[in-house]
Amino acid sequence: MPIFYIIIFLILASCSSKITYSGKIIGVEDFENINFKNKEKLISEIGYPSYIDPIENKYFYFTEKSTKNSIFKKKIKYSYIFVFKMNDKEEIIEAKAFNMKDIKDIKFVKDQTSNEIVRRGLIEKIFGGVGTQQELPTTP
Fold first, then answer.
1. Rounded distance, CA 90 to CA 37, Å?
2. What is the percent of the chain with per-residue pLDDT over 70, rounded to a whole number?
3. Is residue 5 part of a domain?
4. CA-to-CA separations, 101 to 7, 24, 35, 63, 82, in angstroms, rounded
5. Number of C-beta neighbours around residue 60 at 10 A
6. Does some domain include residue 125?
7. Is the pLDDT of residue 12 over 70?
8. Which residues constitute the domain of residue 59?
9. Quick check: 17 and 67 in contact, CB under 8 A?
């Protein structure tokens, strides 16, 4: 008899639909009103970003809405990343939107930064440049 109740529970649970938001909750109608001029207006309207790139002074906002009908059936309604680049005066100079649903193949860059410490031997890595001499440049 308990197995019967478990089966009924699983059938009923699979019929319910659950809406899930990830990142910032930005409605589809708000996508058209994302033209901001400065950082203060951006943060007051949308809130603080999901990530800030301190080197290039870019603000990243991620938003996603999905529905889940069962354990195996998840459908993404929309998934966007908004990128805002700021200048020194905290004005938005560039704004881009990326639709993550449309991205089919992600290509990773094969370039790597060389690591000279790995190339050097273990003893040299431990003791550093102890005992090495550098030639000073001679001036004519």
1. 9
2. 65
3. no
4. 35, 17, 22, 12, 14
5. 15
6. no
7. no
8. 15-106
9. yes
User: Can you say how many angstroms the Cα of residue 87 is from the centroid of all Cα atoms in its chain?
Assistant: 21
Establish if 26 belongs to a structural domain. Answer: yes
Task: Please report, as a single letter, which amino acid is at residue 90.
Answer: E
Tell me the pairing of strands 74-86 and 58-68: antiparallel
| Whole-angstrom distance, CA of residue 67 vs CA of residue 63 | 14
Radius of gyration (Cα) for the chain, nearest Å? 26
Stated as kind and residue range, the H or E segment containing 58 is strand 58-68
Structure tokens at 113: 């930064």
CB atoms within 10 A of CB 1: 4
pLDDT tens per residue across span 80-105: 888 899 998 989 898 888 888 777 66
Tell me which residue of 28, 46, 48, 14 sits closest to 101, measured CA to CA: 28
Regarding pTM above 0.85, the answer is: no
Which amino acid belongs to residue 70? Answer: S
Measure the CA–CA gap between 27 and 111, rounded to whole angstroms.
Answer: 38
